TrEMBL record, chain A:
The protein's name in its UniProt record: Dynein light chain
InterPro entries in the record: DLC_sf (IPR037177), Dynein_light_chain_typ-1/2 (IPR001372)
Record-level GO cellular component terms: axoneme; dynein complex; microtubule
Protein source organism: Polypterus senegalus
Key word Cytoplasm present: yes
Superkingdom as given in the UniProt entry: Eukaryota
Keyword field contains Cytoplasm: yes
Automatic annotation (TrEMBL), chain B:
Gene Ontology cellular component terms for the protein in this record: microtubule; outer dynein arm
Organism listed in the record: Polypterus senegalus
Region annotation Disordered: where it falls in the sequence: 1-46, 144-212, 235-265
Protein's name according to its UniProt entry: Dynein axonemal intermediate chain 1
Keyword flag Ribosomal protein: no
GO molecular function terms attached to this record: dynein heavy chain binding; dynein light chain binding
Per-repeat ranges for WD: 528-561
Places the protein is found: Cytoplasm, Cytoskeleton, Cilium axoneme
Length: 100, 694
């Protein structure tokens, strides 16, 4: 039962749930899409996923982006206006911000 | 044996030999040598020695060699060589080459007798050069300083020393390769430095891009909770979508609209009271100096101006939508001392449009407190004294209306129509009366159609009653015969007596003023031939019961005693007079406005013939002033013009003079004083009236 529930909720939560964002809408949508791709590609390795996300963001939207992916962390950051995205995906929370 | 081998030469060099032999020969040999020497001396000097020697006997030391005479005569040869006697005769060295001892052929015969180390250096040697260099630096230094002096002084005298110094300099220059060669006889050095511009540092920094802070905590329970909430929301929206579509969607859209509207109207939801206060605060700050002037400024220069006074411009009220309309009526509220009403319309017969009724407060000079738009131009208005929310308005189209300020509507609560007895011509004046016996508010109106009508508000209806009909030849008498149609005079203004309720005066377009009573509807009490043109305004004096004032387009203002047919005072103001008003604080002060934009203030107590203040009030002379009103409490007047502006002016102290206090006497204040004042003036005129006025 527990395993089923686990599997259920893992499936149920397999979408990006934005918690906080400062970006314009299209930018946000694009970023979320790209992040989800990265996370699914490097499902086991958060570090590689973060690296990929950061590099893509830098290329598309300009430097300088910071990416944090984790299951349990606290944060207090200063970011450029219109450069923050904080969302959940399955069991991880991802925070991306721009600070040039 | 060698000693014996001396030749004859020895005789000449005998002393030398002897000495030589003394040195070299061993000591034992000395004596024989000595002897030999003596002998030689003896033989040399021959005869002389012999002779000398004969006197002596030879002493023979005991250890002297005993030689025979033959041995003594034996000649010995001696050879002198330059050989070093100490040098060995043969030196043998071991030769490693041949592995045997070999004699060296030449034996060095050099004998050093004396050596002394000197301290002289060859001038080309290293040490000498080094020393020279050291010396030359020091010398040069000295030489330069001396050379400068030397060149300045007589050259011939110092030629010698200069040369020396030049030489030393030359020597010095060899040490320093880069020294410039200067003319030693004629050289002066000069240098100068240009002015370097001061340096200035300039820096600028671009503005950093805007930043914001963000903080959050990410842990498993937060993530889980949030997902659950999101999923619930999604379920709810799905359920809603499944429900019947059309109507609910409409409702939703309406709700959405209302919510958006409410969001946007939040500002208006903010209490209008608050907004009003804020607006007033802002305006007060903006026009702070005007507010201060209004309250406290008293023109100090009035002391120097004997009798004249000035009007200090304060606020200027204008409403953009009323800009094209002329100010046709002004009225202060008796209860709210800072509130006044402005009626807008047009005096031009050809250009008739809509009208506006605006209420301004002195506390907010930029925007009216109340705005009412009317179809027809307003010609007059009056605010009820007892019920300050009731405003009576007379229109150009002949109708009258009553507005209730308490209600928020834009329409009057009562309006007269063709059925209900509206005038057929513009209503020139309306005035509230005391409530009638049934406590109904009522007001009077006068119009160009010759009727003076009384209107009463009875149970939400406006009832009218013609009080009097004006006509050219007196009151229109009914049944006057068909051949004579009564020509109606046009009433242009009226005023009710302050104390005597039923008494009122009416001014007409023909220039006549009729004194009437409410009781008598068929007859005038009196008629005055006042002016040559239409009477624009008539006003009773606030204090003196018998005095009233009238003004007209014939450029004159006249003051009347009601008992006398001719005016007491006549003032010619050089322009058509639009309006005249008594001051509420004095019985002898009044103000008149003319179409050339001037306000004339008179004080009969001060100057009976001339205005004590004549001031251009509006910016352009083309603005015609149409109305003037005194504030009942404050020393200000409002003046309206035909461009729609209302200007507020402060009356300077000279214009509101009170009678001088005599020492020790209490000045009785109150209307009696004013009455007495006026009476005094009039009495001056009355007695010699016949003499003066003719």
């Amino acid at each position: 039962m527990e395993k089923k529930d686990e599997a259920d909720y893992k499936r149920a939560h397999s979408f990006a749930l934005v918690r906080g964002s400062d970006m314009p809408d299209e930018m946000r949508a694009e970023t979320i899409e790209m992040c989800v791709t990265a996370l699914e590609k490097f499902a086991s390795d958060n570090e590689k996923a973060a690296k990929m996300i950061k590099e893509t963001m830098d290329k598309t939207f300009g430097s300088l982006w910071n990416v944090v992916i984790g299951e349990s962390f606290g944060l207090d950051i200063t970011h450029d206006v219109k450069g923050l995205l904080y969302f959940y995906f399955c069991t991880v929370a991802i925070c991306i911000w721009k600070c040039s | 044996m060698p000693q014996k081998a001396t030749s004859q030469k020895n005789k000449q060099v005998s002393p030398k030999v002897a000495s030589q032999s003394i040195k070299t020969a061993p000591p034992k040999a000395v004596k024989p040598a000595v002897k030999k020497k003596d002998d030689e001396n003896a033989t040399d000097m021959g005869d002389v020695a012999d002779e000398w020697m004969q006197g002596k006997t030879l002493l023979k030391p005991p250890d002297q060699l005993q030689l025979s005479e033959a041995e003594l005569k034996e000649e010995l040869t001696r050879v002198l060589t330059a050989n070093n006697p100490h040098a060995p005769q043969n030196i043998v060295r071991y030769s490693f080459k041949e592995r045997c001892y070999k004699p060296i052929s030449n034996v060095d015969q050099l004998a050093i007798h004396f050596s002394l180390d000197g301290n002289m250096l060859h001038k080309d040697s290293d040490e000498a050069r080094r020393q020279k260099a050291r010396m030359s630096i020091a010398e040069e230094y000295v030489a330069d300083s001396i050379a400068v002096d030397g060149s300045e002084d007589g050259r011939k005298e110092n030629l010698g020393p200069d040369e020396e110094k030049g030489e030393s300099e030359d020597k010095g220059t060899r040490g320093k390769k880069e020294q410039k060669l200067t003319n030693q006889f004629n050289f002066s050095e000069r240098a100068s430095q240009t002015h370097n511009n001061p340096l200035r540092e300039k820096a600028s920094q671009t503005e950093p891009p805007p930043r914001a802070n963000f903080s959050a905590i990410a842990n498993q329970w937060e993530i889980y909770d949030y997902y659950i909430v999101e999923l619930q929301k999604q379920e709810r929206t799905k359920e809603k979508q499944k429900a019947p579509p059309v109507k609910k969607e409409d409702e939703k859209s309406k709700k959405k609209q209302s919510t958006t509207e409410s969001q946007s109207d939040d500002i208006t939801k903010v209490s209008s009271k608050v907004v009003q206060i804020l607006e007033r605060m802002v305006n007060q700050n903006r026009f702070d100096d005007i507010a201060q002037d209004f309250k406290y400024f008293e023109d100090a220069s009035d002391e120097f101006r004997e009798q004249e006074g000035t009007l200090l411009p304060l606020w200027k009220f204008q409403y953009e939508k009323a800009k094209k309309l002329a100010v046709t009526a002004l009225c202060w509220s008796q209860v709210y001392k800072d509130l006044f009403a402005v009626g807008h319309g047009s005096y031009d017969f050809t250009k008739q449009g809509h009208g506006m009724l605006l209420f301004y407060s002195l506390k907010n000079s930029t925007y009216p407190e109340f705005i009412f738009k009317t179809d027809s131009g307003i010609m007059c208005l009056d605010i009820h004294v007892g019920h300050p929310h009731l405003v009576a308005v007379g229109f150009y189209d002949g109708s009258v209306a009553v507005y209730n300020m308490k209600e928020m509507g834009t329409q009057p609560i009562h309006k007269s129509t063709a059925m209900t007895g509206k005038h057929t011509d513009p209503v020139w004046q309306v005035k509230w009366q005391k409530d009638d016996m049934d406590n109904h508010p009522n007001f009077f109106s006068v119009s160009s159609d010759g009727r003076v009508t009384s209107w009463t508000l009875v149970k939400n209806e406006l009832m009218y009653m013609d009080v009097i009909k004006l006509s050219v030849d007196g009151v229109a008498l009914e049944g006057q015969g068909d051949d004579q149609l009564p020509t109606m005079a046009c009433g242009t203004s009226f005023d009710f007596h302050k104390q005597i309720d039923y008494l009122y005066i009416v001014g007409t377009a023909e220039g006549k003023i009729h004194k009437c009573s409410k009781a008598y509807s068929s007859q005038f009490l009196e008629t005055y031939n006042a002016h040559n043109m239409a009477v624009d305004a008539v006003r009773w004096n606030h204090f003196h019961p018998k005095v009233f004032i009238s003004c007209s387009a014939d450029w004159t203002v006249k003051i009347w005693d009601q008992t006398i047919n001719t005016p007491m005072f006549t003032f010619d103001l050089n322009a058509p007079v639009g309006d005249v008003a008594w001051a509420p604080y004095s019985s002898t002060v009044f103000a008149a406005v003319t179409t050339d934009g001037k306000v004339h203030v008179f004080d009969l107590n001060v100057n009976k013939y001339k205005a004590i203040c004549e001031q251009l009030v509006v910016a352009k002379k083309k603005n015609k002033l149409t109305h003037v009103e005194f504030n009942p409490v404050h020393p200000i007047i409002i003046v309206g013009d035909d461009r729609g502006y209302v200007t507020c002016l402060k009356v300077s102290p000279n214009l509101r003079k009170m009678p001088k206090e005599k020492k020790g006497q209490d000045v009785p204040k109150g209307p009696e004083v004013e009455v007495a004042k006026m009476e005094k003036i009039l009495s001056l005129l009355r007695e010699p009236t016949s003499a003066v006025k003719k």
